């Protein structure tokens, strides 16, 4: 704690003075919920072949893709719960400070934590869509015991409603994220390498429009040395809890 006391205080003061706080989250915020990031030694792609999330491969090999997708996103991650990082962001919304979350994650944990304004840049694994007739499903409506799952209306192939390699960003989420970045006066970057385009440009837009950047990541990212104003080197759950406790204990909100 002593290591960061000054930075935590500075972050808490910035947040308290802010009019429009936005959080941009990457895979790192969900690591403490047991969901590994894609990259790095412990990342998913050290165990699985990313081609299962390539759109062309998926359409040519739906059963093979679905077998791996089910194992990763529904068997392995299916029961993950929000951690203290997600819950801290929910608390910041509850006390009227956090205006929205822009997330690259597809794990639905910000929703489970209680945040209500969430721009899902890459979609959500808890939703599915028919690749033929575009009917939407929630995961609980789909039987994954027979793969690949098919649409109950037209028998088309179902696909998780998150973006695969080769797909474009959902336009409504993109535009809402750009607007939030432009409006932000304080902007969190939490657990993101900054390597995934075009999501990685959203914090850059926030900075260009005058936002102060607070970054939380155990490892420096592409943002740390060029964009970030306050760098808190550590785990999202630990650091966000300290910031929220500081705000609640030391300041009247
Ligand atoms: P990334 O996989 O490229 O990097 C993860 C980052 O999190 C790294 O910088 C790492 O240092 C940091 N990190 C690790 N543990 C952390 C912790 N406890 N607290 C804070 N930070 C921590 O992630 P990315 O930049 O978000 O991009 C990967 C893409 O993969 C995203 O587009 C996302 O859609 C997808 N993805 C999502 C999930 C998920 O939904 N949980 C999981 C894996 C990948």
Walk me through the structure.
This protein has 253 residues and is an alpha/beta fold. The protein has a domain at 2-35 and 80-122 and 167-251: Rossmann fold, CATH 3.40.50.1220. The chain has 8 helices and 9 strands. The protein has helices spanning 5-17, 55-60, 62-76, 84-94, 109-113, 171-183, 201-208, 236-250; strands spanning 21-25, 98-103, 118-120, 123-130, 136-138, 158-162, 186-190, 212-216, 230-232. The strands form 2 sheets. It has a 6-stranded parallel sheet, sandwiched between helices. The protein has a 3-stranded antiparallel sheet with strand order 5-4-6, with no helix packed on it. Helix 4 packs parallel to helix 8 (236-250) and helix 6 packs parallel to helix 7. The chain is elongated. The chain starts with a helix and ends with a helix. Bound molecules: nicotinamide-adenine-dinucleotide (NAD). Nicotinamide-adenine-dinucleotide binds next to loops. Residues 26-32, 35, 37-39, 104-107, 122, 191-193, 195-196, 216-219, 221, 235-236 line the site of nicotinamide-adenine-dinucleotide.
């Amino acid at each position: 704690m002593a290591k960061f006391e000054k930075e935590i205080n500075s972050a808490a003061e910035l947040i308290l003075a802010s009019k429009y706080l936005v959080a941009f989250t990457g895979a790192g915020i969900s690591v403490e919920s047991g969901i590994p990031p894609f990259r790095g030694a412990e990342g998913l792609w050290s165990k699985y072949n990313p081609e299962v999330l390539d759109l062309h491969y998926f359409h040519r090999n739906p059963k093979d893709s679905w077998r791996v997708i089910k194992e990763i996103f529904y068997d392995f991650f299916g029961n993950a719960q929000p951690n203290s990082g997600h819950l801290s962001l929910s608390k910041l919304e509850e006390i009227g400070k956090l205006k929205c979350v822009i997330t690259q994650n597809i794990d639905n944990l910000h929703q489970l934590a209680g945040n209500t304004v969430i721009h899902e840049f890459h979609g959500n694994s808890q939703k599915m869509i028919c690749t033929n007739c575009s009917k939407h499903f929630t995961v609980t409506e789909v039987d994954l015991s027979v793969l690949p799952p098919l649409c109950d209306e037209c028998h088309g192939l179902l696909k998780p409603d998150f973006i695969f390699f080769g797909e474009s960003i959902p336009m409504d989420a993109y535009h809402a994220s750009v607007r939030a970045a432009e409006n932000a006066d304080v902007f969190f970057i939490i657990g993101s390498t900054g390597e995934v385009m075009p999501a990685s440009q959203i914090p850059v837009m926030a900075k260009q429009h005058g936002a102060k950047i607070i970054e939380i990541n155990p490892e420096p990212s592409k943002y740390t040395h060029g964009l970030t104003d306050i760098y808190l080197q550590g785990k999202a759950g630990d650091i966000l809890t300290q910031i929220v406790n500081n705000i609640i204990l030391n300041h009247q909100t």
